[in-house]
Amino acid sequence: MKKIIYILLGIAVAALLAIVTLISLIDPNQFKPQLAEQVRKSMGRELVMAGEIDWRFWPSLGLSLEQVALRNPDGFAEPDLVRFEQGEASVALLPLLSHRLEIGKVTLSGAHLFIQTKVDGSSNLSGLIKDNTASTATATSEPAAPSTTPVPTGDKQPWQISLQGVALSQASALVQDDRSGTSLRLDRLDLD
Fold first, then answer.
1. Which of 64, 66, 71 is nearest to 84 (CA)?
2. Which uninterrupted H or E stretch holds 127?
3. What is the pLDDT of residue 93?
C-alpha cells in the first residue's frame, strides 16, 4: 500500500515540476509576432492580439487569450471580420510527442462576426484563403496523378489536428448585403 502512495506522490510531484518548468521557460506571448505573420502570409489579413496570452491550468492545461481580432481589408463598414474578448483552449500534451495536436473545447466569449457584400459584389470573405494548389497535368495530356498524403521524411512527419468542439458565449453576428440593402443581425448568441 505504501508503494502505491509513493508512486502516486511521485507522479504528482513530477507533474508539478513539469508545470513549473513550462511556466518558467515558455512565455506564450513571445509567439504573438510569429502567429500574426503566419496569418498575414496565409490569409492576407492582419491578426491583432491586444491582450495577453496566459497559461491556463484548470480544469486542463491550455491557453487563454484576450482581445483578438482578424481585420477586414480597407473600405468595409467595420474594421474587424471577426473578434473576441476572451478565448480559451486546452491541449493534450502527450500526443504532441507523436505529432498529434489534440485541442479540447475552444471557448470564445464576446465573439463578433461581420460579413459584408458591397454593391460591386466584393465581400470581406473574398481572398480569405489563398489557393496553393497547382495544376499537375502535363503538356502531353496525361491525367493528373491522384492526390496522396505526404510520406513523412526525417523530421517532416505531418501533424494530425483534432478539435473537440467550440462554445460561444455572448456572441453576435452581422451579415450586411449592400446590393439588396439588407442586413441580418444575431445578438447574445450562446452556442455549445
1. 66
2. none
3. 75
